[in-house]
Specification:
The structure is a single chain. This protein has nine helices and 15 strands. α3 runs parallel beside α4. The protein has two domains: 162 residues, Quinone Oxidoreductase, Chain A, domain 1 (Alpha-Beta Complex); 127 residues, NAD(P)-binding Rossmann-like Domain (Rossmann fold, 3-Layer(aba) Sandwich). It is 24% helix and 28% strand. Strands 3, 4, 5, 6, 7, 14 and 15 form a seven-stranded mixed β-sheet that branches. A six-stranded parallel β-sheet has the order 10-9-8-11-12-13. With 322 residues, the chain is of the alpha/beta class.
């Protein structure tokens, strides 16, 4: 008997988006504790193009070693079509979504993928698969930063830099849900109506005014941009405040410590349990999903090219099933 196959996107050589090749590959088989998912949509995230480039943005001694070829992607939404030994919580036909095997290797850019059962949650009934695939990594990052690590509660001012993007637009909403007294969104002007519609109390267009010139006494700042100029936010913070970096940046940590500002950042991880909490917020109408663009799986290279141009409003998603 021949091996079952599927269509997937693979990277055969590190480099530009053109290295994403749409081709026929063997279909995976779920192992113990895993399920097989018929992927309907896959989210596109920064770690996907970091992997495609061979993690060139990471110091060589710290780079993950991913043998070629590989199928990128970790955000999925789809339907379970098979279960491995020991799986009792899921069965064929269940609609699920999840951040699969992160941090680590997954294979979401494909018609089928396997996932540990514990990394999945039931897809929100309020969302289609395309919208659901935009949720896992970005929303889990926002949730883990704000709820698990920073433990945001009622009161206080939260500022989100890069608020229009995937992580940012979820941070704005989750800060509001947590009870922040004021949520300040920083993005380019085209995102103003979008972010105010998500609950931002104040909007700052960084293309027109420097944030550090117009904002003070921030309790928690989520920087979803990073980069060499992150330290410009120090005057924005109150003493005792927390600056949380989603991406690497230069924050002049010694100066921050002198000012009584804690600077930290964390790696998002897979959690079906936390995704179930987020799904409940979505189904209750309290958490919305922004989609910047949708591409067919065969056009993954175009999706990556768009994503790397930046200035997204929400997420980019690959549609696998029409």
């Amino acid at each position: 008997m021949g091996t079952a196959t599927m269509r997937a996107v693979r990277v055969h050589a590190f480099g530009d988006p053109e290295q994403l090749v749409y081709e026929e590959v063997p279909r995976p088989v779920p192992g113990p504790g895993e399920v097989l998912v018929r992927v309907h949509a896959a989210g596109v995230n920064p770690p996907d193009w970091y992997a495609r480039r061979g993690f060139a943005n990471i110091p060589e001694a710290m780079r993950p070693l991913w043998p070629l070829p590989f199928v990128p992607g970790s955000d999925v939404s789809g339907v379970i079509v098979g279960v491995g030994d020991g799986v009792t919580d899921w069965q064929a036909g269940d609609e699920v979504f999840g951040l699969v095997n992160f941090p680590g290797r997954a294979s979401a850019y494909a018609e089928f993928t396997t996932s540990p059962a514990a990394h999945l949650a039931r897809k929100p009934a309020a969302l289609g698969h395309v919208e659901a695939a935009a949720v896992p990594m970005a929303a889990l990052t926002a949730h883990q930063f704000l709820v698990e690590h920073l433990r945001i509660g009622p009161g206080g001012t939260v500022l989100v830099n890069g608020a229009g993007g995937g992580v940012g637009h979820f941070c704005v909403q989750l800060a509001r849900i947590a009870g922040a007294s004021q949520v300040i969104a920083v993005a380019s002007g085209r995102h103003e109506a979008f972010l105010k519609g998500l609950g931002a109390d104040r909007f700052v267009d960084y293309t027109r005014v420097a944030v550090e010139d117009v904002v003070r006494d921030v309790d928690v700042l989520i920087d979803a941009v990073g980069g060499p100029d992150g330290h410009r936010f120090l005057p924005v913070m109150r003493r005792g405040g927390s600056l949380a970096a989603v991406f690497p940046g230069e924050y002049h940590r010694e100066r921050a410590a002198e000012l009584g500002i804690a600077v930290d950042g964390w790696q998002v991880r897979s959690s079906g349990e936390q995704l179930a909490v987020l799904a409940g917020l979505i189904d209750a109408g309290r958490l919305r999903v922004g989609i910047d663009g949708v591409f067919p799986l065969s056009a993954a290279s175009q999706a990556h090219a768009r994503a790397e141009r930046g200035h997204l409003q929400g997420k980019i998603v690959l549609r696998v099933v029409d």
